[in-house]
Design goal:
Elements (H helix, E strand, L loop, with lengths): L2 H22 L4 H6 L1 H11 L14 E4 L5 H11 L38 H15 L6 E6 L6 H12 L5 E7 L2 E2 L2 E2 H4 L5 H7 L3 E6 L3 H13 L5 E6 L22 H11 L5
Parallel strand pairs: 1-2, 2-3, 3-7, 6-7
Antiparallel strand pairs: 4-5
Helix pairs in contact: 1-3, 1-4, 1-10, 3-4, 3-9, 5-6
Length: 273
Amino acid sequence: MEKKELQSIANEVRKSIIVQTHAAKSGHPGGSLSCADMLTYLYFEEMNVDPDNLNNPDRDRFVLSKGHSAPALYGVLAERGFIPKEDLDSLRKPESYLQGHPDMKNTPGVEMSSGSLGQGFSTAVGMALAAKMDDKSYRTYAVLGDGEIEEGQIWEAAMFAGHRKLDNLVAIVDNNNLQIDGTLDEVCSPYPIEQKFEAFNFNVIDINGHDFDEIKAALDEAKSVKDKPTAIIMRTVKGKGVSYMEDQVGWHGKAPDDELCEQALNELEGGEA
């Protein structure tokens, strides 16, 4: 797929994030917008997944460990054909299967119910181990928040993955440097992130998380590495693509009102974030 087409899809995902959170009057647009490019590449280029064969035992697995960024995942699942686009504006409504965090029991394409930070990555490690034990070739990808990696459970899972040489596992850290209460340095700095994963026997790659060429190169490298899991530390902008949200911690968990929704959609309309 051409880079321009990927950018167009990611832009549609960003528009859907705005629509979803506006309709719900709640949600987490900032961190959803920052990981939209990576999720787009994973579902449209990288992963072996098929909306018409959801239970294929050889499918690749994806876990959104930072589950509060569910609007990005739902937007990609809709673009890829797993769920109807017309359902997106039901986000967080009581009767909807599109809740504030992913629900594996009711949402096609969701492999793990995540949201309790740290637990999604542990599950992803288990999925990668299962593939090794069953002599399967599928790969497991997990997107983690940079605030999420302040959880001790992340490092227990990383220690296990490195020890077991799970080279079929890719941990992707969305390093937008903002969490609910402020910058990472202000709250509880996990820096230096790269050296921490290296200490747990990970192959570590640092990229611009909004550059599809760099995303491709990193994921290609991850497939070539043997006897080590890979951690991709992607530098991103929280709120990417919406001017008033970019790098603003206040948009971690706040929905745009009517006026700001219209402004965001106008900025994104026909654009490539």
